[in-house]
Amino acid sequence: TELTEKLEEVVMIWTKQIRQVLVESEQIRREADDVGPSAELEHWKSRMSSFNSLLDEIRSSRVKKIISILQAARSKTLKQWKELDGSITIAANEAKDNVRYLYTLDKFFGPLANASPVMMEHIPSLMSTVCMIYCTSPYYNTSEHMTSLFLKITNQMINTCKTYLCEG
Predict the structure, then answer these.
(1) Cα–Cα distance measured from residue 82 to residue 78, given in angstroms and rounded to the nearest whole number
(2) Which of 26, 60, 109, 113 is 20 to 30 A from residue 127's alpha carbon, by CA?
(3) What's the pTM?
(4) pLDDT-based confidence at 107, cuts 50/70/90?
């Protein structure tokens, strides 16, 4: 029982740390007012990397051994642990899925940033791709994500126009 208590303490520390990561990941992002759509992709790539690292750690043999010992001891801490494991898995899947969908827009980001203000040729394809993401993505099709993406696309268009005016 002494070993079980020590392992439960370790799992409770991990639980607290993982909860903190989850809370921080859900906080509102602070971004510059003129940030472009590439920042959205970078945000999700970073988040995917963080959650995948956390999943790798959670699924390591060391952690699995501790969890199996606590399962054999019928520890009460495992209920919270399983919930957090599920939350981390969902967050990692969301980030991975969002990166996959946002990469379909990546081909438009360069032309959008480097085009002249008459960038109309890229807009129909861009909007079609955004529509596809909204209709098919299980995670990214929320009002919050779409608003953030459209804001960044608009910012990029404005930045492109400003650059064009300053160079002309």
Answers:
(1) 6
(2) 26
(3) 0.82
(4) confident
